[in-house]
Every structure is written in C-alpha cells, then in structure tokens.
Amino acid sequence: MSEPKFWEDPESAKKTIAESNALKSWTDPADRLAERIDDVTELLPEAYGINDPSLIKELLQEIELIEKDMEELELKRMLSGELDNKNCYLSINAGAGGTESCDWALMLSRMYQRWAAKRKWEVEVIDCEDGDVAGIKSITLKFKGNYAFGYAKAEKGVHRLVRISPFDSNAKRHTSFASVDVSPEIDDDIEIEILPDDIRVDTYRSSGAGGQHVNKTDSAVRITHLPTGIVVASQSQRSQLQNKETCFKMLRSKLYELEVEARESKLKTLGGEKKEIAWGSQIRNYVFQPYTLVKDTRTKYEVGNIQAVMDGDLDGFVNAYLKEFGQL
C-alpha cells in the first residue's frame, strides 16, 4: 500500500485495504490480548507478594475481562466460512395472519435495525411493502459492516410471536409468524450466470416510507428467478435501471449462496454433521403473554427480558448459535 502506484487502480486499492482491515481485525485484538495476559502474569504475583488488596482486585477484574474478550475472539474464529465476512441482505416476510403478522414483521424490522446499530453497521432499506392496515408485508435491509453475514445468518428462519393482540377488541391471545432470510453481498468479480429465459422482471410504483425521496413513477423492480423461485425487489434507488441493477446484485448473491451451501452441505455429510439445520423451520419463539420469554428452538438459549431483545439485544442468541453450529 505504500507503493506510489497503489492508487492508480482505485477499485483494486479498496479491495486490498478491505483485506488488510479484515486481517487486522484478527491480529490486532490477538496482540492486545497477549500484551494484557503478559501484564497480568507479571503483576499478579507481585500484588500478592506485597499484599495489596486493591491491586489484586483490579487484576482479577482484568482477568475476567480478558476471558470475556478471548471468548469473543473464539466466536469470531468460528466465522471462517467463505461468505461470513461479507455484507448481507436481510429480508423479512409476514406470514399468514393478516394485520397481526404484518405488525410482527415491522417489530422484527425495528429489532434488527437496532441490533445492527449496536454493532455499528450501516443499514439501508432496499425494499419495503406496507401492510394493508398496519405494519409491513415485507422488507429487505442491507447490513454493511464487519462479518455482517457471518453473524446475521443465525437469524435465518421462521420467528413466532405470542401476545395479546392490540388489534383485537376482545383482547385475545394471538400467534403470528414471520420469516427471515439472509444472503451475503458477493463481490462483482464473482461470475454467476443468469439466463434471460430464467427470469421474469416486473416493474411497479414505489411505496412505503420516504416522503419526497420515494419515486412515484413505476421505478421499483421485482425479479423472479423461475428455476429456483427466488424473488428479489428494490425500490430504494431513484431510477428503474438502478433498481434493476440492485435486484440483479441481490439475485446473484442468493444464487451464489445456494452454490456455497450445497458445497458445505456435502462436506458436512462427509464429515458427519451434529444436527440438521432446516432454514425454513421455526427457530425462535417470542412470548409476550401470559409470561415473557424468548427461546431459540435450535440452541435452547432463552432470556426473560423480551423488551431488551426487541431493542436489539440479540448477541446472546447469535453467539449460542455460533458455538453450536459455527464449525463443520
């Protein structure tokens, strides 16, 4: 990077910097941990030797912090998949249940955007379809940040809500479902063939929040990949051409992910997989009444503070997933 010709090719330079930053995200924390361990190893015997209670307490607290940071680094080590370090698209679709499910989809959208903010990721709304009465029928978010796909893939599946419905005058308990899909954003230099006869392109008028920034012409684009049934949509850009390009990028990402999953599935079969993961199955229950509980059906990890979860406190669930399924 110090060579004079480094910036002659800006795109190549950006990729090199990104690769360098990815490596530093591993080496820098490891180096800092090693230094902290050396410091504690050197100081703790001295603290006991001079019988300094305050220094001993401070060093023991530092040991606890080191153990916590080492666990975080170990979790990150599990993000070694081919696509884990990529940005990603997270899509939410309301299930059967009309207004109830649309409201649940909106709640999940807020939860994930707050989670992304806690992780200091950039968030972009790619597409959003409002519900007929309240909430949203579907939304696609783009997360841009370190290992976004590696962490977010833990959320892929069906999410179930149980609560007293605010839309029911009889205050009955309702169950709602919404599905979450996560796919990585792949680099432009990865070639995925998409045949013209394999796709259907539909255009429609943009809708949803955005005020004057929403284009009121038929600029939104939806592309259906007929062989796989994959559907992608975009209305975040100002022109139909730009939205079409965004759709193709998402479609290429999803098709490439299918290829990678097929390869990994074959490796897991050969190596002996601990547990089958069915992405389309119910992965988590969120119970608001008669008690409060959020429980993951795959890892059995659970918490009672449901409000904290809805405010984006998801790392416990994600970490539990990575510990159980993060390695082949």
Automatic annotation (TrEMBL):
Q: Give a short account of its post-translational modification.
A: Methylated by PrmC. Methylation increases the termination efficiency of RF2.
Q: Which GO terms describe its molecular function?
A: translation release factor activity, codon specific
The alphabetized UniProt keywords are:
Cytoplasm, Methylation, Protein biosynthesis
A Gene Ontology term for the protein's cellular component: cytoplasm
Which compartments does it reside in?
Cytoplasm
- Which top-level group of life is the source organism from? Bacteria
* Location of the Prokaryotic-type class I peptide chain release factors domain: 205-221
Instruction: List N5-methylglutamine occurrences by residue.
Output: Q212
| UniProt family annotation | Belongs to the prokaryotic/mitochondrial release factor family.
Q: Which HAMAP family match?
A: Rel_fac_2
Role of this protein = Peptide chain release factor 2 directs the termination of translation in response to the peptide chain termination codons UGA and UAA.
Q: What is this protein called?
A: Peptide chain release factor 2
What does UniProt list as this organism's lineage?
Answer: Bacteria, Pseudomonadati, Chlamydiota, Chlamydiia, Parachlamydiales
